[in-house]
Design a protein that fits this description.
The complex is a heterotrimer of chains A (about 210), B (about 240) and C (about 220). Chain A is mainly alpha-helical and about 210 residues long. Chain A has helices at about 10-30, 35-50, 65-75, 75-90, 100-110, 110-120, 125-155, 160-170, 170-190, 195, 200; strands spanning about 55, 60. Chain A starts with 9 loop residues before the first helix and ends in a 5-residue tail after the last helix. Chain B is α/β, with parallel strands linked by helices. The longest helix of chain B has 14 residues, at about 110-125. Classes of the chains: A mainly alpha (about 210), B alpha/beta (about 240), C mainly alpha (about 220).
């Protein structure tokens, strides 16, 4: 899911950095002290999700969990993912420092859709299940699309790789959808109140 | 009579279920008491109410003779109350031992030089000077407990609230803790179900029941006891 | 920090600044020059005992780079393929080696030493803490599954088990966030995590590496590509 150092053109690196910086700075400026704990622990989860490998056929994909993190953080997800990406970049070489901006844009912007989906009112059980599946599926699909788009915009020579990358992410999207659905169901069963506190943090109000 | 904590007719519920009602408790200046009760009976909740982490539902709470009505009232009391969590990991805010111990002092605006001296002193006092530069999370359970305690003691609180302080500690560390708590000249409320330990530390043990607190053990002189504590219900 | 120093380490602050400089300059180059290898050689020498494991990690980080380079070779765009491949691997190697042996806590401390805003460094401190604690739950759970003979396969049971695992991680993480909030209240957090001492000392290697890195970025001689 992370674009590596050295692949992209300056225009894309700088463009990504500028847009991400704007979102992150806004989220950061409006962040209250009381929101710091939740942002920090979910940043840690995003950081660790890359180490959860789910088998699929002969290979495996790692989780991203952006949708569910976005669902719980709203715009704050930009801060959480920024911190996680920076740490992943320096400690493991995932992504990197120059690609931090574009990776943050590709990964964090779609999580806002996760937040929006999570806020939709539901009445029937299967509505909820479908939404929860989509909270995993859609943000990852959008991220994969943005990643491929980034590669394609990088030059004609990158178009083949872009198509391949999009294709390669298909299984991950489905897995992410299922895992998100069942994980949310699990949380609903064990600690339902955790799913109700969403308003506290998302709407710029301290708990 | 100088009192650290006065609780009258306090009731608490969790998720709509009444845990206990009519809890009345007086803790006098420098008195050490323990509260026991089965798991899930609301011992921690009681500590959290005294520490201002949770709203009072019913009843009254006075700290150092000041009535506490809302969480706002606790703002001025923060530095007088030291709270030790059951899980020390939850207590830490800075990763390096000396920084974490110094945290509250630096946050309250004390200078770095003075804080350094005080931190060194308290680490020395608890016998953990050698840990000063370590990462707190890499320490053993007992060492973590002492670091957390140092971080609380450095503020020189008048009232200490300890939640299951012996959890996960080996015998030697428990005895070390008994010794340290014995030397501390403050009001202490310990919540625990570790009877052997608290009997070595406190003067009184209360048992929490759905109908209130009952004093199950009083290791203090009978005569003193009568004067210090009015007429709240208790047994011997 | 209290690390027993088996090999010379670069201070995390130096590492952050130099990695940022090196990767920014190299990533924007259309041509690579021989001196850009100098800091890699120095770092490689400093970490000579760990080179094998570093190169193993480098290999696995090359998946996307390999896809991109392969598609360019397919299009007979050999020069671009080589440029992209080298550029990526120069930077990756630099980052992997310079941050070798560092953990999330040292990065948080370095952030603070660089005088970034307090709120930001606080988040780094608390994220580092959470990573440590959640990783512990993570390992515990994996061991439990292993002991019970759970073998991950491509089936619904595996996915449900892993989802339950993710669910547990979220619950534990959110519980930790509530405790953290309580600790912040009780201990008087007002927007900053402090340090009494610098904790991270600079050595002669920091100076040497800084000098060589800067030199490598300005000395345009011996074009490699």
């Amino acid at each position: 899911m992370h674009l590596s150092e050295g692949l992209l053109r300056p225009e894309i690196l700088i463009g990504g950095a500028v847009v991400s910086a704007a979102f992150t700075l806004y989220a950061f400026k409006t962040l209250k002290d009381d929101e710091i704990p939740k942002t920090a622990v979910l940043s840690a989860l995003f950081f660790l999700a890359s180490f959860v490998h789910v088998p699929i056929g002969p290979t495996s994909v790692h989780l991203v969990l952006g949708g569910i993190i976005g669902a719980m953080l709203g715009l704050r997800a930009f801060i959480a993912i920024f911190v996680a990406l920076l740490l992943q970049g320096v400690l493991f070489g995932f992504g990197g420092l120059t690609t931090l901006g574009i990776n943050l844009f590709n990964l964090a912007t779609p999580t806002l859709v996760g937040y929006w989906l999570f806020m939709l009112p539901t009445t029937k059980r299967w509505h909820k299940d479908l939404l929860w599946f989509l909270i995993g599926f859609v943000p990852l699909a959008l991220s994969a699309f943005l990643l491929s788009l980034t590669l394609a915009l990088n030059g004609d020579a990158f178009v083949d790789a872009a198509k391949l990358a999009l294709l390669a992410h298909l299984p991950a999207m489905l897995i992410e959808g299922f895992i998100t659905l069942f994980a949310l169901r699990f949380i609903e069963k064990v600690s339902p109140n955790l799913l109700h506190v969403k308003e506290c943090y998302a709407t710029h109000k301290p708990a | 009579m100088s009192c650290s904590v006065n609780i009258k007719n306090l009731s608490t519920s969790r998720d709509g279920v009444r845990l206990y009602e009519n809890v009345t408790l007086d803790v006098s200046h420098k008195e050490k008491i323990a509260i026991i009760g089965p798991n899930g009976c609301g011992k921690t909740t009681l500590l959290e109410i005294i520490a201002g982490l949770r709203n009072l539902e019913e009843g009254t709470l006075e700290l150092f003779h000041q009535p506490m009505h809302s969480l706002e009232d606790f703002k001025n009391m923060r530095h007088l109350i030291g709270y030790l969590f059951q899980d020390s990991d939850n207590q830490f805010l800075a990763p390096v031992v000396e920084d974490d111990v110094a945290f509250s002092l630096l946050a309250s605006g004390v200078s770095k030089e003075e804080t350094k001296l005080k931190t060194a002193m308290i680490l020395q006092d608890l016998g953990i000077s050698h840990l000063a530069k370590k990462i707190v999370y890499h320490l053993s359970g007992g060492e973590k407990k002492l670091v957390a305690l140092a971080g609380v003691l450095i503020m020189e609180p008048k009232l200490m609230l300890l939640d299951e302080p012996t959890n996960g500690l080996d015998q030697a560390m428990q005895l070390r803790l008994v010794d340290i708590l014995g030397r501390i000249d403050k009001s202490i409320i310990i919540v625990s179900h570790h009877k052997e330990f608290i009997e070595l530390v406190v003067e009184k043990i209360y048992e929490i029941t759905p109908t209130g607190l009952s004093c199950s053990l009083n290791l203090k002189d009978e005569h003193n006891h009568h004067h210090e504590h009015g007429d709240h219900p208790h047994t011997h | 920090m209290d690390k027993t120093q088996t090999q010379p380490r670069i201070a995390p602050t130096t590492a952050l600044l130099l990695a940022l400089s090196y990767s920014t300059v190299v990533a924007l180059q259309e041509h690579l020059y021989a001196p850009m290898l100098l800091p890699l050689l120095l770092l490689g020498w400093l970490h000579r005992a760990l080179l094998w494991s570093i190169f193993k990690r480098l290999f696995w980080l090359n998946t996307l780079i390999a896809i991109v380079a392969a598609s360019m070779l397919w299009q007979e765009n050999y020069e671009l393929a080589l440029l992209v491949f080298l550029r990526s691997n120069f930077i990756l190697l630099f980052v992997l080696m310079i941050f070798q042996g560092k953990d999330e806590f040292s990065i948080a401390i370095a952030m603070q030493r660089l005088h970034l805003p307090h709120k930001l460094t606080s988040i780094f401190f608390f994220t580092a803490k959470s990573i440590f604690l959640i990783k512990r739950e993570f390992t515990l759970f994996k061991n439990t599954l292993h002991v019970r003979g759970f073998m991950p396969k491509t089936n619904l049971l595996t996915y449900k088990t892993m989802a339950g695992f993710v669910g547990i991680l979220f619950i534990k993480a959110l519980e930790r966030s509530l405790w953290l909030q309580k600790a912040m209240h009780l201990r008087g957090f007002c927007g900053e995590v402090y340090t009494l001492e610098a904790h991270q000392d600079f050595s002669v290697y920091d100076t040497l590496l800084a000098f060589i890195t800067i030199l490598s970025l300005v000395w345009r001689q011996g074009a490699l590509i």
